[in-house]
Structures are given as C-alpha cells and as structure tokens.
Amino acid sequence: MTLLELSTVSVHYGRIQAVSDLSITVNEGEVVALIGANGAGKSTTMRAVSGIRPLSAGKITFAGEDISKLRADLRVVRGISQVPEGRGVFPGMTVAENLDMGAYARKDRRNLQPDLDRVYELFPRLRERRGQAGGTLSGGEQQMLAIGRALMAKPKLLLLDEPSMGLAPQFIAQIFRIITEINQQGTTVLLVEQNAQQALSRADRAYVLETGRITRSGPGPELLADDSIKEAYLGVA
C-alpha cells in the first residue's frame, strides 16, 4: 500500500527552483532513500513533505489524503515526524524533556510510557543520560536523541535528513543499525543521506536526485552495484 506519494512536485526559493517535477512513492513498511550531491534538492524534498517548505506546483498525498497545503504541525498529528539535518535538539532541556517535547501533538499523553521505554531500549545511552542537558551530549548522542524525540510522536512515516552527518564511523554504523530496527518494528522510513553506501545497503528502494530532478531509481542493492553510481557517489572508479 502506498503511504506517501509526491506527484510532479516543484519547490522554489525565491526565483531559484530547488526541486522540479519530482515524483516519488513510499510504500508502507519500506525504507526509501534519496541520494545525491550537495544542492541536489534532497533536503528541500524532505521539507516539502514535512510542510516546512510550500509547494510551487504538484501534490503530496499521505495515507490517501492530499496534504499539499496542510500545516506542518498537523502533518505531525497525521503521522509524519522529521529528524532535521543538524539534529536540532533543545540544548537547555534535559534528554527526558527533549523526548517529552516529541510527544507534544499527541492526544494520548497519559500513554507515553511504552513509547519512552521503546526509545530507551533502542538507545540505552539516552536512559543513562536522561537528566543531562541535550546540548552537552556528543554528536552521536544528539542524533540518537533527535531520532528518539521523533519516535515519541508515534509516526507512521519517519523522515531522516542526513542522520550520519558529522558523526564518527562507529556512531554511523550504530545509527544505521537502529534505523533498520525501527523499520522492522513497523515504522516506514524516508531517508536522505550523503553516505550512499550505508543508505543503499539499507534501503528497499532508492531515488537519485541531480539538480532537483530524479535521474535514477530502483532497489537499493541494485543501485549500490551499479558502476555509474559507484563512481559518482561511492568514490569507486
């Protein structure tokens, strides 16, 4: 079943067209990756899905509903949660307070404990640091916190924008293992990532963006094995 569909979506920043006639689908239960160079339009696409950037043209459908003009906060209520590029944790709040903020839009706030337990099971380090200010965590720990905060909204679709950016190699491997586990637990994932090796090896399907347009698509492992993809994005000639 199709959970998310972007149909001929275009997005502008002033006169600059960042995304042009972009069409992608994300099916329920999948991990779908968007890969491409800096400036290809990946993060703009994510902002369009989450409602942070308005569309210039096209349509976004989520769970059968046209959400093209729906406010960003109401998209969270519908089941879309984004982990932004750069993590964006609240530095002066504790880990526990950051996680509680992730559930701000939920109507069942009395039933948060099972979801908090799930986050702490996925990220035991957050449980250890639950009283520590978010701004004092390492980069990897902040990324864990940002993902945990998004999960507290109980999303149907988790948007991950460059989750490995600026992280040490051991944290990158750990974050991607957890992304796979989150997906196996039933959350659909749309992933923007410059680490094409990790993204394609974890994705059911992937799209390649170049200057705001889709140039390639296919199963993640198939694109990972493609020589032109290796040369362009994996540094393999």
Describe the structure concisely for a colleague.
The protein is α/β, with parallel strands linked by helices.
Blueprint of the fold:
Elements: E1 2-13, E2 16-27, E3 31-35, H1 42-50, E4 57-62, E5 65-66, H2 72-78, E6 80-83, H3 95-102, H4 113-122, H5 124-128, H6 139-151, E7 157-161, H7 169-184, E8 188-192, H8 196-202, E9 205-210, E10 213-219, H9 220-224, H10 227-233
Parallel strand pairs: 3-8, 3-9, 6-7, 7-8
Antiparallel strand pairs: 1-2, 1-4, 4-5, 9-10
Protein name: ABC transporter ATP-binding protein
Keywords: Amino-acid transport, ATP-binding, Nucleotide-binding, Transport
Pfam family, one: ABC_tran
What would your notes on this structure say?
The protein is α/β, with parallel strands linked by helices and 237 residues long. It folds into two domains: 2-79 and 155-233, Rossmann fold, CATH 3.40.50.300; 89-150, no CATH class. The chain contains ten helices and ten strands. It has a six-stranded mixed β-sheet with strand order 6-7-8-3-9-10, sandwiched between helices. A four-stranded antiparallel β-sheet has the order 2-1-4-5, covered by helices on one side. A hairpin with a 2-residue loop joins strand 1 and strand 2 (16-27). Helix 3 packs parallel to helix 6. The longest helix has 16 residues, at 169-184. The protein is globular, with a radius of gyration of 17 Å. The model has no long low-confidence stretch (mean pLDDT 93).
